[in-house]
Amino acid sequence: MVVRYLTGDVSELAQRASAVIDREEELWVTGEVIAEAAYMLNTVYQLPRELVVKHLSAFLRKRNLTPYALDKGLVLQGLLLCRGQVSFTDAMVWAAAKTSGADVAYSLEERFPDDGIEVRRPQPSRP
Which residues on adjacent β-strands are paired with residue 104? Predict the structure, then answer.
């Protein structure tokens, strides 16, 4: 629904998405939905990362949208990290860790954001 709303692709579906999203009713959006929308916009629609960040940030700034179990400011901050090499999924995991107050996250990704948290990268165990 988010991708249809942002792209206007498939006019009927975009209109139906708008009918839900543009109401005043409070809507919750998960980090997974944000990451999936970013992936679709970047890979399927081939929008540059900077533009994906811009569109998703504007979308999340809508007054009636609230990230589910995530701090909106941290989600927006996480999206800004994606202008570089941080994946959209890692940015949502980072936002979740920061929202929960965790000061440690485990990741195998070298590009996982360490802004304000300690990132531990497990090493293979030795026999």
Answer: 118
What 3-state class would DSSP assign to 65? strand
Q: Are 70 and 95 within 8 A, CB to CB?
A: yes
Report the C-alpha gap between 25 and 88 in whole angstroms: 27
Residue with tokens 């090493």, as numbered in its chain: 123
**15 residue type, one letter:** Q
Work out the average pLDDT over 57-74: 97
- Residue 27: how many other CB atoms lie within 10 Å: 14
pLDDT at position 106 is 94
The rounded distance, in Å, linking the Cα atoms of 124 and 121 is 10
- Candidates 40, 81, 37, 44; CA nearest to 59 is 37
The helix/strand/coil state of 34 is helix
Q: 70: which DSSP letter? A: S
Does residue 109 contact residue 90 with C-beta atoms inside 8 Å?
Answer: yes
Answer yes or no: pTM beyond 0.85.
yes
